[in-house]
Fold this sequence. Notes:
There is one protein chain. α1 (6-28) packs antiparallel against α5 and α2 packs across α3 (72-85). By secondary structure, the chain is mainly α. 66% of the residues lie in helices and 0% in strands. The protein has one domain (6-220). Bound molecules: zinc ion (2 copies).
Amino acid sequence: MANKPFYRRVDELAVTSFPIAWLGYLAAHTWTLTEPIAASFGAVLGWACADLVSGFIHWLGDHILPADAPLVGKWLVQSFAEHHDRPQSICEHGQAERNGGPCVGGLIVLAGGAVGLKWFGTPGGVSSFLYGWLAALSVGAAATNQFHHYAHLPSKLVPHPVLTLQRLGLIVSPRIHGKHHSGPHADSFCITTGWCNRLLDGILKMTWSRLRGESQYATKSIRPIDRLAL
Ligand SMILES: [Zn+2]
Ligand SMILES: [Zn+2]
């Protein structure tokens, strides 16, 4: 316990504090919720945005950031490298290790959202939309690796409500996520719902080919990692 690394303590704190902060956000901003339909549209867009962001960060970790990058090296890059090497390893991680980083992201979204809602402080369609967008975006961001975990867990161990969400396409399914692990980990990066895989794959490939003149962006070799360092 005494040797627990700093980033692991941050993980534990984030996993504990995110649900409290999220409920606090909902309670503190109900005054903005005057148009539920606008809030519902915001929530759907927020859920999609969480997926897109999950895919972009996953791509950065897989193919751009070095494994020894400050802060995110162990937290993100080595974690994804280990996951590619042994996909089922995600099923062995505890709550804090699995969800700590995403919960930090969710907390940052909530903090930014609270400031944003102050700017759009007049109750109405815009603030209702933002309320729903931020509520869904923050939960989608915080829970993304939990959904990713469920996509790797044997189906008999996945709770029935979660299986239903997977079948409805509301969270990423084993079939959708399996595409990422079926090749050189060069596409299908989105791990919240998988809705944005095609969009992100297209954007990344087009941008990469324009910048580098290469059609394939999976150029960073994923180095074996020192698991003892994790
Ligand atoms: Zn995976
Ligand atoms: Zn990956």
